[in-house]
Amino acid sequence: MASQGWCADRLEGWLKKNPNKRAKDARDKLEGDYGIKLKYSKAWVGLKAAIEQIHGKYDESFQLLVNWKAQMEAASPGSIVELELEGTKKHRFKRIFFALKPCVDGFLAGCRPFVGVDATALNGKYTG
């Protein structure tokens, strides 16, 4: 009987090269490479553990994003960092927007002012 760690260790390199593979593919690979019989559920758990080994745990990754936002605000005062989350009980990342203060200042200093006209009638030679 294969353990979760054993499956994950053997699937990690293969999964890096084939990130779209599913549990059935993982089971077929392990059965073919090692001549064992493996339940689908064990392959699924091993695949999830391998993904966690590659990318890290979800909660830790999420916390890194929150920490990064706080660090950017502290290191570059005046920068805009917006982190949008979904869900009420369990937060889920939706999107992030950031504009660093030096970039905003450079944009404002380098742009020429313009006049925008909306919904007007043209008179004279070119009407419309």
Question: Could you describe the 3D structure shown?
Answer:
This protein has 128 residues and is mainly alpha-helical. The chain has 2 domains: 4-55; 58-110, no CATH class. The chain is built from 5 helices and 2 strands. It has helices at residues 4-17, 23-34, 40-55, 58-75, 101-110, and strands at 80-86, 92-99. A two-stranded antiparallel sheet has the order 1-2. A hairpin with a 5-residue loop joins strand 1 and strand 2 (92-99). The model has no long low-confidence stretch (mean pLDDT 87).
Characteristic key phrases:
128 residues, mainly alpha, two-stranded antiparallel ribbon
- List the uncertain runs: none
Largest sheet: 2 strands, antiparallel
Record field, number of beta strands: 2
What's the shape?
elongated
N-to-C series of helices and strands: HHHHEEH
Beta strand %: 5-15%
Write down the Rg: 26 Å
Number of domains: 2
Roughly what is the average pLDDT, rounded to an integer?
Answer: 87
Distance between the termini: 79 Å
Query: What topology, given as strand order, has the largest sheet?
Result: 1-2
Proportion in helices: 40-55%
**Which structural category fits the helices and strands?**
mainly alpha
Separate helix tally: 5
Question: TL;DR?
Answer:
With 128 residues, the protein is mainly α. It has 5 helices and 2 strands; from the N terminus they run ααααββα.
